[in-house]
Amino acid sequence: MRLSVVIPAFNEEKLLPATLRAVRAALPEFERRGWQAEIVVCDNHSTDGTARVAAEGGARVVFESVNMISRARNAGAAAANGDWLLFLDADSTPSPALFAATAEAMASGGVLAGGTTLRMDGGGWSVHALAAVWNLVSRLARRFAGSFIFVRADAFREVGGFSERHFAGEELDLAKRLHRIARRDGLAIRILSATPLLTSARKARLYTPRELGRFLLRAALRPEATMTDREACAPWYDGRR
C-alpha cells in the first residue's frame, strides 16, 4: 500500500518545518506495516520561502497559482501516488500515535475515510471550548476537520475531490459526498478520538473576537453563501500570519 501526505501551504515558512518534522517522525508507523509513503506540499502561490522549506524538509513540491485552499488540496492530490491520501494542514503536528491509529483504520478494510478530533496549541478558554464543541459535533455527525482528513484515493477521485466553489468549509462538502459512497459500499467514515491532532490556534491571536464572531455568525446563518464568498472567508486569505 502507498500513502500520500498532502499539505496545502500558503506563506507557511514559519510553521511548515515543524509540521514536516512531525510527519517524518510519525511515518514509521506506516512504514513498519510495509507501506510506502511520500509527502507532497502544494505551494499555493506563496510570497515567502514556503517552497524552499518544503523541499528542504523532504517533501515533493507542486504549485497551484490560484490562491484557494480547495484548489491547493486538489493540486496536491493530483500529483500524489498513494492508494490513500492524508490531507494535513501546514500548521498542525500529528503524533506517531495518531498515525498509528490512522494506519489501523486504513488497514481495517471497513473504512472509506475519516478524520480526528483536535487539540488546540494555544488560545484562551473560548478557543478550547469551541474545539470541544466541534469535537463533539465531529464525532456525532462523522464530519472531519480540514486539518486532518484521510480518504481512499479512488473514492476521493470518484466524488470529484474538493469543491472549488468553496473558499472555506470544503471539507464539510467533501464529507457529505463521501458519506453517500460509504453508504453505497457499506463502509464507515471514522473519526479518531483517542489521539487528537495538535493544531494551531493562531486565528485567535491574529483576529479579534469581533472579527471571528462576525464570521461565525454569518456562517451559521448563511453557510453556503458565506463559504463560497472569498471576501467573507478573509481569515483564510488576507495573508495574516
Describe the secondary-structure layout.
Blueprint: E1 2-9, H1 16-26, H2 28-31, E2 36-43, H3 50-56, E3 60-63, H4 69-79, E4 84-88, E5 92-93, H5 96-107, E6 111-121, H6 125-141, E7 148-152, H7 153-158, H8 170-185, E8 188-200, H9 202-206, H10 209-221, H11 223-227, H12 234-237
Helix pairs in contact: 1-5
Strand order of the largest sheet: 3-2-1-4-7-6-8-5
CATH homology-level superfamily: Spore Coat Polysaccharide Biosynthesis Protein SpsA, Chain A
Number-wise, the strands total 8
Q: Percent of residues in helical segments?
A: 40-55%
Proper CATH architecture:
Alpha-Beta Complex
Briefly note the structural class of the backbone.
alpha/beta
CATH topology: Spore Coat Polysaccharide Biosynthesis Protein SpsA, Chain A
Strand content: 15-25%
List the secondary-structure elements in sequence, H or E: EHHEHEHEEHEHEHHEHHHH
Largest sheet: 8 strands, mixed
Number of helices: 12
Average residue pLDDT: 96
Quick one: overall form?
Answer: globular
CATH class term: Alpha Beta
Any idea what the radius of gyration is? 17 Å
Tell me about this structure.
It is a single chain. Strands 3-2-1-4-7-6-8-5 form an 8-stranded mixed sheet, sandwiched between helices. It has helices spanning 16-26, 28-31, 50-56, 69-79, 96-107, 125-141, 153-158, 170-185, 202-206, 209-221, 223-227, 234-237, and strands at 2-9, 36-43, 60-63, 84-88, 92-93, 111-121, 148-152, 188-200. Helix 1 crosses helix 5. Strand 2, helix 3 and strand 3 form a beta-alpha-beta unit. It has a single domain, classed as Spore Coat Polysaccharide Biosynthesis Protein SpsA, Chain A, CATH 3.90.550. It starts with a strand and ends with a helix. The chain contains 12 helices and 8 strands. By secondary structure, it is of the alpha/beta class. The protein is globular and about 50 Å long. The model has no long low-confidence stretch (mean pLDDT 96).
